[in-house]
Design goal:
Strand order of the largest sheet: 1-3-2-4-5
Strand content: 25-35%
Oligomer: single chain
Shape: globular
Helix content: 25-40%
Number of helices: 8
Largest sheet: 5 strands, antiparallel
CATH class: Alpha Beta
Order of helices and strands: HHHEHEEHEEHEEHH
Length: about 220
Amino acid sequence: MAILTRDKLARGWVRRMIAEAGYRGRLLSDRELRRRLEACLSEHPAGEDVWLFAYGSLIWNPSFRFTAREPARIFGYRRRFCLRTVVGRGTPERPGLVLGLDRGGSCRGLAYRIPAAWAREELLLLFQRELITGAYRPRWLRGRIGERPARLLAFVVDRSHERYVSDLDDEQVLSMLEAGEGPLGRARDYCLATARHLRELGLADRYLERLAARLARRTGA
């Protein structure tokens, strides 16, 4: 399974990876990503550190600088396999699935503290990693860090995106996780790694645990 590093992001590796894979969807330009970042930061108090909420691969492969991380929970969104991937962990012929924050419920994960002085630089790298295809949107969400009320930045799925899927049952999800593989590795490994790290952090997700257990039985992982 490929690991994204901060250096790779700074060198534009994600954009090149997508281009080399022959992705036919629209990619946001660096100018558009900067504009979205500035719009996002305009909603945040100047001079305050940013707490970023991680719910998927950012838990075990953050690839940005931070000064602290703590268990956190956001409200109004839940973790789901709701985004087809045809580049990173799949191909157009054998698409995989990745997680998104979709409407409803709540979600436990990690909150990373990014100092205000670093926020613009580090978040731009994350926007280039997570938002380049337009499948996610940055949102400031209410939540808790430990027992403290908090306002956290998170990447939620864009339900209007062509790769958003909302009606898959467990069997369809598992089939796509088994089939998907791309430059970032296998979709099934992404699922298993996320479930394992959440479990080790004491943040086990019943939805992921159910899928990971069945996936492990089916694949011998």
